[in-house]
Design brief:
alpha+beta, Conserved hypothetical protein from pyrococcus furiosus pfu- 392566-001, ParB domain, Conserved hypothetical protein from pyrococcus furiosus pfu- 392566-001, domain 2, 2 domains, 31% helix
Length: 272
């Protein structure tokens, strides 16, 4: 936890080769498809993905996989990112819980039962690959025999895929059903995931052993939002060195004009 939020450093923004940016999770087509349409006609780039810097000029996405996928699909060669130190106190790693909505809960359970090498058991189990709580109860735990991170993530992908293409998927940091169900009246099930460590995220990216979409949750203190950087500068067929010189000059102008503000308090954004 940040004890002195005033000490949060300015964001480290850079334009990099889009092929050097590695995702650690599968893309979420429910989010990337509409995002792609927005980016295709956007005049400015607002929220850069947050990445961790690895050796060899590679970067692992902590948050922003769908923006990365969308820009890559649109043919962008370069992408602006915010680089954060994974080992610093300014990065926290948690998980999102999934609300499965607009579907039939019993059909959801039947699809899980039909998955090979996955067993659905009654009740909670801390050693399970995931936990499920139906609206109004009961609770179930999902088990699978796995020997590696890649197998664990593959199991979770199959679980999420069972509802991702059939239901509406919402993410929440909440774990209290009493708070969740009133906010999501069409929700039929809550899927809860085990915690991850930064090394798990890095290995998932390097091994292409992706997590399901929307499971990892990174909190970045000092995150850059609403930049409104000209998209034409990002699209331009110029060397990376030139683009980064332009970016740094643009940033100096923003600070000189006092158009950059830091908000230490947690916020709710209603424009996502």
């Amino acid at each position: 936890m940040i004890s002195n939020p005033v000490s949060v450093p300015p964001p480290n923004l850079r334009i990099v080769d889009i092929e050097d940016v590695l995702p650690h999770e599968k893309g979420d087509f429910q989010r990337s498809r509409p995002l792609m349409k927005l980016l295709k006609r956007a005049e400015t780039f607002t929220n850069p993905p947050v990445v961790a810097d690895l050796a060899g000029d590679k970067y692992i996405i902590m948050d922003g996989s769908n923006r990365h996928i969308s820009l890559k699909s649109l043919g962008f060669e370069h992408i602006m990112v915010q680089i954060a130190d994974y080992e610093s106190d300014f990065v926290e790693l948690g998980v999102w819980q999934h609300i499965v909505a607009d579907w039939d809960a019993q059909r959801f359970l039947r699809m899980l039962d039909d998955l090979d090498q996955i067993e659905v058991r009654d009740g909670w189990d801390s050693k399970a690959a995931a936990q499920i709580l139906l609206r109004g109860g009961p609770a179930y735990s999902i088990h699978a025999v796995v020997d590696s991170l890649a197998q664990r993530n593959a199991t979770l992908r199959r679980v999420v895929e069972s509802y991702h293409s059939n239901a509406s998927l919402y993410r929440t940091p909440l774990t209290d059903p009493g708070q969740i169900w009133p906010l999501f009246p069409s929700g039929v099930a809550l899927v809860m995931f085990p915690p991850y460590q930064p090394r798990d995220i890095i290995e998932a990216a390097l091994q292409a052993a992706y997590l399901p979409p929307g499971v990892s949750r990174h909190i970045i203190h000092g995150r850059a939002l609403n930049l409104n950087y000209p998209m034409e500068k990002l699209r331009a067929p110029l060397p990376l060195s030139t683009k980064n010189e332009q970016l740094q000059e643009w940033l100096r102008e923003q600070f000189a004009r006092r158009s950059v503000r830091y908000y230490a308090e947690g916020t709710y954004h209603f424009d996502e």
